[in-house]
UniProtKB/TrEMBL annotation:
One Pfam match: ADH_zinc_N
Gene Ontology MF term list: oxidoreductase activity
The protein, known as: Zinc-binding dehydrogenase
Organism: Actinomadura physcomitrii
InterPro entries for the chain: ADH-like_C, ADH_N_2, ER, GroES-like_sf, NAD(P)-bd_dom_sf, Zn-ADH-like_protein
Length: 345
């Protein structure tokens, strides 16, 4: 394995933003390579995920959430895939192995061996592990319990979760799949590339009309399942369109997280709770992933098979070099891309 260079780069918080983060709120720092402690694996990162929830961590975080808030001087973090440079004997990882961990946004990381998950060839591209196929599959199968013939509505259909959830819902037997997105161009791509039957557009400037009216037109008989990545007005519209016994799973709150006038740590939504009662709508927060890092979780086999057969695609955009990461985050927040966004080192 190559010897680490004398200095390596990492992305740090330069200043907390007053509003949405921009590249000037981050700095690229050079530092000596990390020195692994007892039980640590030294990893040379090859890819890391750029995700919009970093805005919440920069805004102070949310009590009870699994990740701490970010402060000036902190190194950013997120899901990453890297190559093992060195590992303690008997810990599992070996030099040359690919592992998944959560210390992205840096070129090298010292990761506790217990926090490294092996990456094998079950998926045709290891970068798929940085996407949201696991979240989409789990939300649909465990939390929303999608059934053959269901009408499924996915908010944020062009995002990392939504770009997978619409396709997976179809593969699980959904009869009609609807998505929301922010522009007519993305709406066209949802239908043309990702198997959505129709898309509603949240941007009032596009002249598409209120979300509730668009959803009523796209699903005149109502919806059975909601995978909600946005919240706000779109969750409100979904309640109004729900059939009796509809199942809702709340995965994200992008409407609140990415609102310039909010701190990114709340997801306010006004909904008619009478409708929850009279229509017997089951609403739950996403229950997290069952993967404990040991063995191969069940979703990998099924998603890997779909990807290899061409029934499922992994929409994503790759940015080259760690220096591109701050710009990549800005473009994620601005909604410039379809699917997951990763930085390739």
């Amino acid at each position: 394995m190559p010897t680490p260079p004398e200095s390596v780069r990492e992305i740090r918080v330069a200043a907390l933003p007053d509003g949405l983060p921009r590249p000037e709120h981050f700095t690229i720092a050079r530092t000596p390579p990390p020195v692994p402690g007892d039980g640590d694996v030294l990893v040379r990162n090859r890819f890391f995920h750029v995700f919009p929830a970093l805005r919440t961590l920069l805004g102070g975080g949310v009590p009870g959430a699994p990740f701490p808030p970010l402060r000036p001087g902190d190194v950013l973090f997120g899901a990453a895939i890297g190559e093992v440079v060195s590992a303690p004997p008997g810990t599992g990882p070996r030099p040359g192995d690919l592992v998944r961990h959560f210390l992205g946004w840096r070129e090298y990381a010292a990761v506790p061996a217990a926090q490294c998950t092996p990456v094998d060839d079950a998926l045709p591209d290891p970068v798929v592990h940085l996407g949201s196929a696991a979240i989409a599959y789990t939300a649909l199968t465990r939390d929303a319990r999608v059934r053959p013939g269901d009408t499924v509505f996915v908010t944020g259909g062009a995002g990392g979760v939504g770009s997978m959830a619409g396709q997976i819902a179809r593969l699980l037997g959904a009869g009609r799949v609807l998505g929301s997105t922010g522009s007519p161009a993305k709406a066209q791509r949802l239908v043309a590339e990702l198997g959505y039957d129709a898309a509603v557009i949240r941007d009032a400037g596009a002249g598409a009309g209120p979300i509730a009216e668009q959803l009523a037109e796209a699903a005149p008989d109502g919806i059975d399942v909601l995978v909600d990545n946005v919240g706000g007005e779109q969750l409100q519209a979904a309640v109004g369109a729900a059939r009796t016994g509809a199942r809702f799973v709340l995965v994200g709150t992008l409407a609140g997280q990415l609102a310039p006038g909010l701190p990114g740590t709340t997801g306010p939504a006004e909904i008619d709770t009478f409708q929850l009662i009279t229509r017997r709508i089951a609403m739950r927060g996403f229950g997290g992933l069952d993967d404990d890092g040991q063995g191969r979780p069940g979703w990998v086999e099924r998603v890997g098979g779909w990807l290899r057969s061409g029934e499922l695609t992994f929409p994503h955009v790759r940015f080259a070099g760690i220096e591109s990461a701050p710009r990549a985050l800005q473009e994620v927040i601005d909604g410039r891309h379809l699917g997951a966004v990763v930085v390739e080192l």
